[in-house]
Amino acid sequence: MFTRAAHRLLGLCVFTLAPALVNAVQDSESATAPLREIHAAGFKTLTEAQVVSLAGLQPGVPVGRKELQDGADRLMQSGLFSKVSYNFQTRLGVLVTYQVEEAPRIPLYFDNMPWFADSEFLDAIRRRVPVFDGTLPDAGGVVEQAADAVKELLNSKSLGVRLEHVVIANPVGEGNVQQFHVEGASLSIGKVEFGDPALAGSKVVQQHLPEVQGKPYSRMALDLFLSEAIRPIYFQQGYLHVKLGPPEIRLSGNPNQKLPNELPVFVPITPGAIYRWKEIRWHGNSQLSEFTLNGLMELKTGDVADGMKIEAAWDRIREELAHHGFMDAKLDAVPQFDEQSQKLSYSVAIDEGISYQFGKLVLTGLSLGAERKLQAAWPIAAGTTFDKIKFEDFLTKLELHPAQIFGELPVHYDAVGHWLQADSATATIDVLLDFK
Predict the structure, then answer these.
(1) Quick check: pTM over 0.85?
(2) What's the CATH code, domain 276-351?
């Protein structure tokens, strides 16, 4: 048995050689034998055939250490794997097995490329990257191959734009996306129309439309506009399953003509049903009673289930727990929709975590006199519950009403940096204030 640590990849490469080859391998890095079989293990979304293809080795071709390592390197360089290791045996040739761990993959998001439909971009990538399933890793060879396929499609129209890709937070959901966008386009967002006629006369909508109309065309800008300006209008009315978009470019005339500089956008909207509030069940709460928690919700049975009030209520509850020192409190709020009665209930599990005490105050950038004034005005005594609300109120005074803290003492600063240094082992929080 011969064992060595792998270079240029993660994992351990274990080599099992026939005795007749041991001396040759020890004497020469170039010793080879025909590759009889190649296998893969550990794959989940990919197939064994796909992993084998990515390794780039062919049965019947002589291989040695270098060729097997090159195959592992190709797997890692694809970006599809976070770990790769391999082992092989020589029995009438070389039998190698690559053990892989697939890397996370994310959806694609085509931002400002209206010359083609998403399906056309996806088909172009699929032709270039056979293992493509609609998702890509953060980086690696397959991402660059996908970019080349998109670039080739764009170049077919001689657009004179430069393609870029970057991982960003998903503007329409959770997690991240691999965003493809171009630089050098001169397209802007023209008239925006909505599938719901009720929005046409909305003053709120008219106030927000200038945020996108006349601006450079960007699907992300439109999606964020829908999420931040339009969705709240429906949530406040209890339309909790409203479907907005995706935005469409609707042009008349010859589809083969060059796109106009201003693109008219149509947003399909399906409001869905109006839901009403039924009840909420609390679990794990010890600091706050159900009576207090229900009061913070500000919703009663039969009320319209205002989605914006619900989101604000979760923030109020976290703030109230932080008022009692529970700075790491977490809420797991699970909605339960009764589609028949159009009622909404919630089951909320509260993990309060540690109740922190105040430790010490660390000040920099002040004179000794100013430090004494601030220490005297500090509202939380050492060893008592750290109250986040008192802390934030104090920061507001420092910013807007410094005379309430320093009196007539001349103190000059432009900004106050502030940090909370939590120690879970001692359940204490130190406050650091830096005056600049």
Answers:
(1) no
(2) 3.10.20.310
